[in-house]
Design goal:
8-stranded mixed sheet, 23% strand, 11 helices, binds alpha-D-galactopyranose, globular
């Protein structure tokens, strides 16, 4: 369905959910795939994500009272609060994300001497949840943009991205890195974002959607324990850094550790911790060479780094699953494919494929048949365009 069609439908769903005649304002924030820099954001390394033309719609209409009513098209439940007595702690449900953001935006409003008003809000969209396409950052950044607009605060993109990040880390309690809200909030059409997570500097690198396209294949695997396993990797990387910095006092994060330091002292680490460090330190180098390849216009050289990244995620970081390995191997063996790897944290979710435009049908057929042969069911394979980042969309 076209964007206009999706927006019109979301507006109708809002009126069906909340009644009344006045149309809501509708905001959109995309999801993202990360092409290079896997598990580097919380290690201070560089990452190369890009936004996709799928994401979250947030429909908002002010109320005359001070109630905030949050509803979602994906889940029939509602969350309702008085503005003056928002929950202090998370409830373990989807509404934690927008509540966390609302709390942050109200603090920023207060600093301007402004006040919030009650709102009816409906969330929806077309981004698969839990697939590694950053549905949580899409919801948080989309909420921050919508609240800023309806409250007339005029906050900058970066302020909104950081409010979304604080909400997810603080109120929701996920030890996430900075990549996802930055990738969603700073997205630019036709570009990959190069984000250095150590100093938060960024630049845009061209991704020519007339020549290459992005495929995403969803394994359908969702691991209950994925959050715990992600937090464990964060802890292991921290342990590696604490041990190695003793031999390299100038290092401020694991990204700074040099190959020589790891080679000389890696055997002092527990074997799994040493493997995590090896992944991170080599991934930093791979991400820089992927940037060089892109600057040369060498999509195939870029894709080759993606494939090396996947191998390292499988062997050293140990976050792949057989379903992802089959998809990546199948993609790489198909003509027109530049590279493939798991995207997001791993433990299930999606593989991302960089391919020549025109090779879509062959890639979809090949991935589907290889996956069906191995697992007896089909993966969901889709192709995405880029996206220009969060915005308000007129309902026509
Ligand atoms: C998840 C996290 C990101 C990042 C990736 C791995 O998607 O949300 O912050 O750490 O894993 O690159």
């Amino acid at each position: 369905m076209s964007e206009a069609g999706l927006v019109a439908r979301h507006s109708r769903e809002f009126l069906a959910a909340f009644g009344g005649r006045a149309s809501p304002r509708i905001f959109f924030a995309p999801g993202r795939v990360n092409l290079m820099g896997a598990h580097l954001d919380y290690n201070g390394g560089p990452v190369m994500p890009t936004a996709i033309d799928r994401g979250t719609f947030v429909a908002v209409r002010p109320r005359i009272d001070a109630r905030v009513v949050l509803a979602s098209t994906l889940d029939g439940t509602r969350a309702e609060f008085e503005l003056g007595s928002l929950p202090e702690t998370r409830a373990g449900r989807w509404a934690d994300y927008p509540v966390g953001v609302l709390r942050e935006i109200l603090l920023l409003a207060e600093a301007q001497g402004a006040r919030g008003v009650g709102l009816d809000v409906l969330f929806g969209g077309n981004l698969p949840v839990g697939a590694g396409l950053s549905s949580s950052a899409s919801i948080c950044v989309g909420s921050a943009f919508a609240l800023d607009a309806v409250y007339g605060l005029g906050l900058s993109r970066l302020e909104l991205v950081n409010a979304a990040l604080r909400a997810e880390r603080g109120f929701v309690g996920v030890q996430c890195g900075i990549m996802d809200p930055y990738a969603v909030g700073l997205a630019r059409e036709g570009a990959l974002l190069w984000l250095d997570c150590k100093d938060r500097t960024s630049e845009y690198l061209p991704l020519d959607h007339d020549r290459v396209t992005i495929g995403v294949a969803d394994t359908g695997v969702r691991r209950e324990l994925a959050q715990g396993a992600f937090n464990e990797r964060v802890g292991q990387c921290r342990a590696a850094f604490e041990a190695l910095r003793r031999h390299q006092p100038d290092a401020t994060c694991l990204r700074d550790i040099r190959f020589e330091t790891l080679a000389a002292h890696g055997d002092e680490l527990e074997p799994p911790i040493a493997r995590r460090a090896q992944h991170v330190i080599h991934e930093v180098a791979r991400t820089f060479s992927a940037r060089d390849a892109l600057r040369r216009g060498d999509a195939h050289g870029f894709g080759a780094e993606m494939v090396r990244t996947h191998e390292s995620l499988r062997e050293l970081f140990e976050v792949s699953v057989p379903e992802l390995d089959v998809l990546v191997a199948s993609a790489v063996a198909t003509p027109g494919v530049h590279g493939a790897r798991l995207t997001g944290a791993g433990f299930g979710g999606c593989a991302v494929v960089l391919l020549e435009r025109g090779a879509e049908a062959e890639v979809a057929d090949r991935l589907t048949s290889d996956f069906e042969r191995a697992f007896g069911r089909a993966p969901v394979v889709e192709f995405f365009g880029g996206d220009g980042g969060p915005r308000e969309i007129e309902v026509v």
